[in-house]
Amino acid sequence: MKVKNKTLLLLASMVWMIAGINIARIGFLSYQGYISIINIILSLIIFIVFWSMIFQKLVQKHTIRIKQYTTEKQYFWNFFDIKSFCIMAFMMTFGILIRNFHLMPQLFIAVFYTGLGLALVFAGASFGHKYLNFQR
């Protein structure tokens, strides 16, 4: 149940990569019939906003927290704190509700999910980079 502190960064990387790939996949599949320069630009803007305002800071915050653990091993779920798990659960629930109850048009799903998914993938890659360069 316990893993080395460095491994927590790898776990965070895997969780965010899996989530990001799944969300981006939904966005890409929804793009059929909506591919245009403006929509691609909107997805890019969503990516930049989510990466720079949320996920980049999240990666830094959790990397610092993990590096500050004083014991060599932690429970594997400690790659995030309670607040981050709650945010993730809210985002997943909200996303599932949007799609299952058709609360937003396909165009929104295509543009928003693509940008958000790619930002999540980038966060996962950043955690992976932190894992590879981990030093106490």
TrEMBL record:
Domain of life: Bacteria
Annotated transmembrane regions: 7-28, 34-54, 75-98, 104-127
Keyword flag Membrane: yes
Keywords from the UniProt entry: Membrane, Transmembrane, Transmembrane helix
Name of the protein in its database record: Uncharacterized protein
Organism: Amedibacillus hominis
Source species taxonomy: Bacteria, Bacillati, Bacillota, Erysipelotrichia, Erysipelotrichales
